[in-house]
Structure formats: C-alpha cells, structure tokens
Amino acid sequence: MLEIKNVTKKFGELTAVNNLSFTVEKGQVFGIAGPNGAGKSTLYNLITGLYPFEGSIKFEGKEIRGFPSHKIAKLGIARTFQIPQTFPSLTVKKSIAIGNYFGSDAEFDPAYVDEILKFVNLYDKQDEKTGQLKLLDKKMLMIAAALGTRPKILMLDEPMAGSNSKEILSLMELIKRINQDMGITIIIIEHFMKVLTELTSKLLIIETGTEICCGDPNDVTSDSRVIECYLGDGHD
Ligand SMILES: Nc1ncnc2c1ncn2[C@@H]1O[C@H](COP(=O)(O)OP(=O)(O)OP(=O)(O)O)[C@@H](O)[C@H]1O
Ligand SMILES: [Mg+2]
C-alpha cells in the first residue's frame, strides 16, 4: 500500500533519513522506533509532502513524491503530530468537521463527523473549545480530526507520550478499533516497546536515519543490535 524506496533526506550536512526502504501492507499496523533524533518524524514529514527528498514514495502504486500535503491528504494519508496540535478557539465538533471538509475527497458529511465523535468518545464534549481539553482528549481529538479526512492510512507520531498507564490502554484500544473496525492501515512511531509488540505486526528500527532491522516485533525487540542502539548497553 505504501512503498518507501531509497529515501534520503539531508538538512545541510545532517542526513536525517539515510537510504530507507520498506513497505507497509494494506490492513497492517506497522511500527517505527529508534532513539531521539533517529529521523522518525522527518520520515512522516516526507511522506506527507512537507519537504523535498531523494528516492521514491509510492501510495497504492502511484508515486507521490513532489505532491503538496493537501493532495496527499485527499489521496487517503493522514497523520498526527508528536506535540498535540488543535485550534484552541474551535469546538471539538468543528475541528473534526474541518478535517472532513478540507481533507477528504468525498463530500462533507455531518453524519460522518457525528460517527467519529462517538467512535473516539468525544460526543459529549463536542461543543467544548479544544483549548480547554485535557491532554488525553486533545490526543483523541487529533486522531479524530485525522479520521475526519477518511484516511486509508493513519500515521501516529508517539501517541502515548506523556500518558499514564490507564491512558495508554485507552489509546491502544482506540488504535486497535481504528485498524480492525474501520479497516484503516496504521503506522505508529512509539518508544514503548510493549505497546509496539502488542499492536504491530511489523517493526522497523532506525538510528541516525538508517535501518537497524525490520521484521516481526518479537524478533526485532530481542535483536542484540536493537538492544545496544536503542536501549543502551547493559540493558537486561
Ligand atoms: N527542519 C529541519 N531542519 C534541520 N534539521 C532538522 C529538521 N527536522 C529535523 N531535523 C533534524 O533531523 C534529525 C531527525 O529529527 P526527527 O525529528 O526526525 O527525529 P525523531 O526520530 O522524530 O526524534 P524524537 O524521538 O526525538 O522525536 C534530528 O537531528 C533533527 O535535529
Ligand atoms: Mg519525532
């Protein structure tokens, strides 16, 4: 469904993404992990058309390199950001409606917006201003606004960051439902290995923009190269 081939991104002297290649299959939950500064968020920025790069990114067989972000959104690729971003003066409902109005190729559909509000458990808070929301609700809203665009693939950037264990369970449950009930393919960047091994069927580890290994999450997380680069020497 999404084919990344020999993708490289340099910022001046710094190579943030170094000749990366991988494929995400339809229906999959695909995980990406790696130390801080590994190039994970930059990779999302390349897939969503924020920067020019070398190499090829194909979505459903079609090259999308050079496409503007709004066109990529309309093809069916949505993402969230590492730091929750909302429009603070807008209501919850309007924020999801904006995703549906501007980010989807289909006609604006208020019934679909209601469906999403219920799906993420924000129906009762639909008239609240997003600036007043607690962190977990802000995260749910960011995911909901992305769902508003009717994506085929949803890319989450460290959705668990700053959450307690109960909130992590709620987010994991939501991610599973998005994948299984809505049939949306998911890419998730995450630092919590337990979350990745439970949610994903394939896991890519990168360090300084370069692939360390990619495969079954249980194999990957027990790989000595991953333990050394990601968890640090001497981690049991
Ligand atoms: N717009 C930019 N201009 C210059 N350098 C950048 C830019 N964006 C990212 N970088 C650099 O590219 C490298 C990769 O950054 P990136 O944010 O992709 O890492 P990350 O894997 O998402 O890290 P984290 O786990 O901390 O979120 C870092 O060295 C970062 O400073
Ligand atoms: Mg990042």
UniProtKB/TrEMBL annotation:
InterPro entries: AAA+_ATPase (IPR003593), ABC_AA/LPS_Transport (IPR051120), ABC_transporter-like_ATP-bd (IPR003439), P-loop_NTPase (IPR027417)
PROSITE patterns per record: ABC_TRANSPORTER_2
Keyword list, A-Z: ATP-binding, Nucleotide-binding, Transport
Domain ABC transporter: 2-233
GO molecular function: ATP binding; ATP hydrolysis activity
Pfam families: ABC_tran
GO cellular component, one term: plasma membrane
Record protein name field: ABC transporter related
Organism placement in taxonomy: Bacteria, Pseudomonadati, Thermodesulfobacteriota, Desulfobacteria, Desulfobacterales
